[in-house]
Please model this.
Amino acid sequence: MLGNSQSHPNEEPTATAGVYDAVVIGAGFGGLYMLHRLRDTLGMRVLVLEEQGGVGGTWFMNRYPGARCDTESSVYSYGFPDDRIDEWRWSGKYPEQEELLRYFNFVADRLDLRRSIEFGTRVSGARFDETDSMWNVTKASGEPVRARFLIAAVGMLASAPYAPSIPGFDDFAGTVVHTGAWPADGVDLADKRIGILGTGSTGVQAVPQLAKQAEHLYVLQRTPQFTIPARHVEYDDATWDKVKQQRPALFEKARWSLGGFPWEHNGRSVLNVSGEEREAALEEMWDKGGFEFLWGSYKDILTNPEANKLVTDFVKEKIRSRVNDPATAESLVPNDHPLGSRRPIVDTDYMETFNRDNVTLLDLRRDALLGITESGIRLESGELPLDVLILATGFDAVTGPYLRMDIRGCNGQRLADKWEDVGARSHLGFATSGFPNFFMVAGPGSMFINYAILMEQHVEWISNLITRVRDTGAKVVEVHEEAEIRWANHINEQVEKTIIPLGGNSWWNGTNIPGRERRTLFYFGSYRQYREICDAEAAGGYQNYAIS
Model:
């Protein structure tokens, strides 16, 4: 067995060059903590392979104007106790991309993580060798690396930007840029005619900032979205001192909450209160802003269509009140899906931006995008000249980051083929049968919640299982196929208890990619229940895993 679980936490055991106890793919939130746990706590020899030029994952890649976290900073950071990183101070409620990237660089430096990370290295594939129970990992350069354990901390989105196929792309003489691949040195937007395609979370963040720079901004809307104001505030010293003092309790509350946030719903049904009481409560939550409006108000917003409609209608009226032009407002009001059935969006002045003279909403459901020309875009109504076209068209989410790599398990089975045949099956989002010693941090079948809380839990759960394997002298751990089938059935049953199926085509079910079969990619129960299920698996001795 490689490595030694009894090694001193600050000393790495020696090993043959190019052979490691574990290879971790990705140096974002999950990858950095996985490295720290395996190397510094378990004393394992670990190599992290990171495609980008620095740490930070999604916050290294998403540099578009307006990029910021939509989870409150009090619980969007590492929660494990370590004096070396506890002195970090957030500037406000929702940090911008630059500050988030500084945070991950701060953590990497304070925990001395860079010496175990190889930057600018894309993993093209990996194959499990059944003769010695090792993973052969191949870099895009062709150079091989071997490891007992392979852990994918590739995230759910950022490593797989998606651009739709639109006729004439190659003809455009202006600048085309995807928000998920924004150049580090920026894009010249000053006094330009800018078109932005896509109004998901990224587009909603970018539009207000683009409008401040553009001569004219054209927002090409495919699907109108519900958005909830962020209500961002900067932290003065007194406020930050209070937040910092509360952080341990906030993290603990978030770890056992509905959605990974430090709040709970009020325990009541929307249907069991008077109209006046409901309006007052919703106004109070609206004024607070952020995800608390959904996960911290009434208990049945996301599970009862009748209850949901009352809250959906409330938000529709809020959209109308924020936009001056009635026709524009109606185009911005979603009528094909209820609130919360698609990825919730937190905004800063998004709706108000359409009150600017230099911003025009183009509703592509009424005026279809036919193609791109040398000088701009072609709509049914005619041609529109542009200097810059920005694609805020999302990602090949959840499975895409894995399918970019040629991962092969027992008998050479390709992960892509397995997931094509049976869906992206996993056990709790951690592991998939037929791929021994392979783990995923927040993989398909886990949850869409506060990722900081989820990823930290996943890292600790996986590292605890690896400890169990090593302490027993075993070489191989693999989840039983029956366990992942049961979990797949469970998450399919659970989603039917919610309003999620009413959300139509969405990256939550993979159908944002044309031709992709609709499949449930997340567990849409409460995070508290999910965590209890994970803990029960560990406490029961990992009965759903073969350790040999």
